[in-house]
Amino acid sequence: MTPNTLKLLRDTAIFEQLSDVQLHRIEQRLITLQFEPGDLVFREGAPGRYICFVIAGELEVLKDTGEGENVPIATLGAGHSVGEMSIIDGLTCSATVICRRPARVLALTREDFDLLVDEEPRLGTEIFRGISRLLSMSLRRTSADLAAARAR
User: Fold this and answer.
1) Alpha helix segments (H runs only) across 29-120
2) Is 110 exposed, middle or buried (0-12, 13-18, 19+ CB in 10 A)?
3) Distance between CA 112 and CA 30 in Å, rounded?
4) Closest to 59 in 3D by CA, of 93, 109, 23
5) Cα(114)–Cα(112) distance, rounded to whole angstroms?
6) How much is the average pLDDT of 113-123?
7) Where are the domains of the chain?
8) What's the CATH class of domain 3-109+120-146?
9) What pLDDT, on a 0 to 100 scale, did the predictor assign at position 152?
């Protein structure tokens, strides 16, 4: 593992608690993807095939209002991840993600994620904990935003 890749993985919230040995096991299964502005990363309602860890650039998360309008709900830069929910629950993508600035991501496919969890249960547990922490923080922010919106 290159020192740069190690730092990139360590700067990703899901992996911040993992050892160098564990990060190396994950790195062996990652693929690098490049996106240009306007490229579609995920489409809401499509099968979730991988989780992405942003290492450079900017992605925008859009949510369909149900009336055909896509509303921006988040901007993701280096250190952020996207695609965790569909990797965990096996459901379709809950939002659309578009590249806004040239981006490079490390991706872990659903198949490789499942193999990693099956082959190394302890590492799988640590990854699930990292994803759970991340989703919990996101839900807390969303709850606070909803409460503030309703108070207006």
Assistant:
1) 84-89, 110-119
2) middle
3) 8
4) 93
5) 5
6) 92
7) 3-109+120-146
8) mainly beta
9) 85
Q: How confident is the model at residue 2 (pLDDT cuts 50, 70, 90)?
A: low
Whether the pLDDT of residue 142 is over 70: the answer is yes
pLDDT of residue 39 exceeding 90, the answer is yes
Distance CA 65, CA 25 (A): 39
Go through 135-147 and write b for each residue having 16 or more CB atoms within 10 A of its CB, e for each that does not.
Answer: eeeeeeeeeeeee
Residue 91 backbone dihedrals phi, psi, to 5 degrees: -85, 180
Which residues are registered as beta bridge partners of 33? 105
Tokens for 36? 């240009």
pLDDT at residue 60 above 70?
yes
Looking at residue 135, its pLDDT comes to 86
Determine how many CB atoms are found less than 10 A away from the CB of residue 152: 4
Token pair 């450079």 is found at: 56
Q: What is the pLDDT of residue 1?
A: 55
Q: What is the mean pLDDT of the chain?
A: 91
How long, in residues, is the chain? 152
CA gap 25, 145 in Å, rounded: 37
Nearest Cα to Cα of residue 86 among 55, 65, 107, 59: 107
